[in-house]
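JOB MANIFEST
job_type = single_chain_structure
chain_count = 1
residues = 434
[input]
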Amino acid sequence: MKYIKIALRNLSREKKRSFLLGGAIAFGLLIITVVNCASAGAVKAISENITKIADGHIFIQGEQRLESDKVVSNLADKDGLLRVIDESGINVIKMNMRSEVRAELIFGDDSSRTAVSGMNWDREVDVKNGFRFKEGSIDSINNKYNIIINEKLAESLNVELGDSVIAKVMTVTGQTNVGDFVVGGILEGTDILSSMSSYANMDYINELIGLEKDDYQTIYIRLESIDVVDAAAEKLFTALGQEYQMKARNDNSDIDLFSLAFKNEDVEWDGQRYSLTAVTEMVGILDQFVGVVNAISFGVLLLLFLIIIVGVANTFRMIMYDRVKEIGSMRAMGMQKGGIRSIFLFEGFFLALAGAFSGIILAGILMFGLSFIDLGTDHAGAFFLNNGHLLFVPVLGPILLNILTVGLLTVLAVLFPANKAANLDPAKAIAAMY
């Protein structure tokens, strides 16, 4: 305990030197912590944005191989699927059914692609209540042939309320079909997320893509939060697998949510099968991205601290020379070599600890301030943002690893001057002139 007290006293009496060394350590931790939390926040923001667009956390789709070997995208046993979902034990907050297709909308010489969601308006209460119309009203959903688009898409097509647009779509069997829509409503907002989806009557969408009136292609399941998605998805997948042929979840990366089509694969299958995709799987590649970012930032941390540690080692070497007579006096009064070494090592440890925690606190303050900056939502980068704002998610593992690494490197840097100080001859140290 006495060595700790002496170490803390030494740090406090050399405030300027301690502040500069601790500040260098704090700066390094600040940068790395912000990078780690920002990369994790980007993944969470994307997950939330996908959930917002799709209005769900888990998506169930199906496909059927006909005798002609043609594959049709549909949900054959809808009642059975709904029963299994109900009996699976997952906490379903809301469930919707949609048919969805990627369409090319054409108006005169202008064209633009958008995902058109075929909506059962009697069930989609939350979506209807969330609409903010720039032109038109919710009454437009009563017309089977109306389409509701975002004002960004309206500007791209140069259309106004009441204009007729041509929609070129792909049927469930892979054929091209064309239909006509009337712009029944234009929603407010020019953000990129809103412009990704348009809305139409599900019966008409089914006609265009070749499904029966009461059919739908996707079941959208919303849970209480994104934190329970993985566990719920695994539980539901197991329950469905007991009654149906399921596509392996590790192959779900080749499902396009908006075209609702299964791409070609090598696995042989026949009849009807289903797939379950969780929103977290759709950003799985970004989890790998976060891992790469964290690895790179850790490498940068090591490089940065190797530079800082050289400064720490040189500084403590100078400290040793400044304290030669003091060290000699303590040794003459009976302090052992280990005591001198411990004092130096404790100084380095507490310096690293203070710098590390200061850096994390400053990072928290910086992230708090940055999260208030509105970066807008009318650009591609908006997909990585939370309503136009940076999202920072604390990642305990990397933060603790960074603190441990900084502490270890600092102690190792101090070890050489600490050993040299401990090995000073007391008599020579007292008589030394520096």
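[summary]
The chain is about 50% helix and 20% strand.
The first strand starts at residue 58 and ends at 65.
exit_status = 0
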